[in-house]
Design a protein that fits this description.
Helices cover about 40% and strands about 15% of the residues. The chain is an alpha/beta fold and about 260 residues long. The strands form two sheets. A four-stranded mixed sheet has the order 1-2-3-4. Helix 7 runs parallel beside helix 9 (about 215-230) and helix 8 packs across helix 9.
């Protein structure tokens, strides 16, 4: 990134545009380092919080709060359709920029205003985040239990540290076979293949919610273990460790 910034000095205004949480890997952008570079090269930082709003930070305010940088980022944008459970999107930033977007951004000019019922639902969701931070904690616990359980059974979850948990299989056929097996066992997951991800990194994307119970997570993990017997190729890319070795995780999460 620094090399790109150095090569762009003197060529106009600079901006670093980055996801807070990456949607296919579940990892978090190294925002402090990005912010430091932006200051050094006088660049704006624009962060897309689609998968971080309602997820990261003590009260779910996203990646800046997670890193103790709330209020320092130039432009924060995101969706209202994921963590907040409604529709639409938002952009927050300097007054002049927001004024410009209102009058010049094509997607905004030709969009209708949000329905009052949607606005009310969003306000209620924000109230929950503000006054019931235990849901954010529960979400993190559920994600940790799912990720650790999958790892214990030998599934590759990449560098995920968030409720977006990739189960990286590699071969597209095996990925789709695993998807069908899990559906048959009552667990809904989505397969992701090229061009959404690089060739050879096809995966399932597991998304954990705060409202999942520990029993829900263990049921899903049990299905992932059973799926090994339904998809022959899985034996080559996962370990032989059994779900019994995962059950000890329940105690630590419940505590």
């Amino acid at each position: 990134m620094e090399q790109k910034l150095q090569a762009s000095v003197g060529k106009g205004n600079l901006a670093i545009i980055v996801d807070g949480v990456y949607s296919m890997d579940g990892d978090i952008a190294p925002l402090p380092g990005i912010y430091s570079l932006a200051k050094r090269y006088n660049a704006l930082v624009i962060i897309d919080e689609a998968h971080a709003t309602g997820v990261l930070g003590l009260r779910g305010r996203g990646t800046p709060e997670y890193f103790g940088m709330h209020g320092k980022i130039d432009v924060v944008m995101g969706t209202l359709s994921k963590g907040l459970g409604a529709v639409g999107g938002f952009a927050a930033g300097p007054k002049d920029l927001i004024y410009y977007l209102r009058h010049a951004a094509r997607g905004f000019v030709f969009s209708a205003a949000l329905p009052p019922a949607t606005c009310a639902a969003l306000i209620a969701a924000l109230d929950v985040l503000e006054h019931e931070p235990e849901w954010v904690i529960r979400l993190r616990e559920n994600a940790d239990l799912m990720r650790q359980g999958l790892g214990q059974m030998g599934y590759d979850t990449g560098d995920s540290t968030t409720p977006i948990i990739p189960v990286i299989i590699g071969e597209e056929i095996t990925t789709h076979q695993l998807t069908r097996a899990l559906h048959a066992l009552g667990v809904y997951v989505s397969p992701v293949a090229f061009p959404a991800v690089r060739k050879g990194t096809a995966r399932l994307r597991v998304s954990v919610m705060a409202t999942h119970t520990t029993e829900d997570i263990l049921k899903a993990l049990n299905a992932f273990e059973k799926a090994k017997t339904m998809v022959p190729m899985l034996s080559e890319i996962t370990s032989s460790r059994k779900l019994e070795e995962v059950l000890s995780l329940q105690t630590s999460v419940a505590a």
